[in-house]
C-alpha cells in the first residue's frame, strides 16, 4: 500500500485533546438521483428556511446542553443539497453553533454543493457566512454518464462550478463515482487525470454500489443496468490508487485522496472514532455523556423532525448506549478505513481485551494487513478490496 500522508499523531484513548465535530443535515434536493439511498427529499413547494433555521438552532442548543465544554473543530453541512440554502440560513446555523459551543480558531467548515445549484454570488455569500471549504458532487466528467446517473448538470457545468469554487475558497474538493456501466480502466484513468488537474487538494472517489430501495436496484435486478464484473471493478480500483498516488493525491482513506495536510478534518473525526453531534432530519451523532458513548439518531422525515423539535427541543428518536465491545468494534470498522490504520492498544482500552495475535499473524501472512515498528495495524492495498472481511476476522 502507498504510504499514507502524515496526519499528525492519532488520538489515544484517554489522552490528549480529541476533536469534536458538528454535522448538520439539510434534507432537500431538486431531484432524487436513482443510485442515492441518503435521507434526501424533493419538495415542489418552497421550503420555509427561516422556520427550519430556527429548528436547527433549537436542536443545537439542546444538544450543546448535553455536551458542554466542547470545542468544535469541524462543521459539515451535508445533505441533501445544502447549496440550495440561502447564505443567510447557513449563517444562522453557524451562528447558533458559535453561540452554544466554543469554536476553534482553525475550525473547518465544509458545505456540500451540487454543480447545478452553484452560483458565484451564492458562494461568496457562503464564504461571508463562515464556510471555508466546499465539496462538490460532480460524480462524472462526461455527459452520457451524468445523464445515466440522473444528474441535472453537464460536464461543462461541473467544471465551471469547480472554477467558481476555486475563486471563492482556498479549500475545495469534489466527488466522482466510478465502476459505472460500460466504464473501462482506460476511460477511468483519463477521467481521473482530468479530475486531478482540476482538484487543488482533495478528491472523494466512490465505486458505484447498487443500494436496496433505489431505482438502480430495480433496474439492476431486471438486468437493465449492468455494472462492471468483479475483475473489472478491481482493475478500476487499482487504477484509482495508482493514478492518484502518481499525481500527488494518495489515499488517506479507502475512498478519499488528498495532498499531505489537506485531508478532510471532519471526516477524520468519524474514522478516528471521535465525538460528533448530528443536527437535522436523519442526522446521526456519537456523544460522550458521563463517560458513556451514545449513538444518537434523529427523525428522518423533514416535517416530522421539524414538529418534534418545535415541541420538544430536539428530533432524537434513538439514543443507544454503546457498551465497550460495540464501541471497540466501531473504532475498528472505521479506523481500518484509514491509511494510518489503528493503534491496537486503543482498541484494547476500549474493548477491555486485546486483538487476537493469531488472527493478526494470519492476516499478515495473507498480505491483508501490516504492522509497523510502532505496533500500528494497517490494511494493505491488497486488503482494502476485502476490508469488511478483514474487519470481521479481527473482531471475531
Descriptive labels:
globular; disordered N terminus; 22% strand; 3-stranded antiparallel β-sheet; 9-stranded mixed β-sheet; TIM Barrel; single chain; alpha/beta
Q: Concise description?
A:
The chain is of the alpha/beta class.
Profile the largest sheet.
Answer: 9 strands, mixed
* Regions with little confidence, pLDDT below 50 for 5+ residues: 1-16
Secondary-structure element pattern, one letter each = EEEHEHEHEHHEHEHHEEHEEEHEHHHEEH
Distance between termini? 25 Å
Can you tell me the CATH class of the largest domain? Alpha Beta
- Assign the CATH topology of the largest domain: TIM Barrel
Strand content: 15-25%
What's the arrangement of strands in the largest beta sheet? 9-10-8-7-6-5-4-1-11
Within CATH, the superfamily of the largest domain carries the name: Aldolase class I
Let me know the number of strands.
Answer: 16
CATH architecture grouping of the largest domain: Alpha-Beta Barrel
| Percent helix | 25-40%
Give me the Rg, rounded: 21 Å
Structural class call reads: alpha/beta
Individual helix count: 14
Query: How many structurally independent domains?
Result: 2
Shape: globular
Mean pLDDT: 89
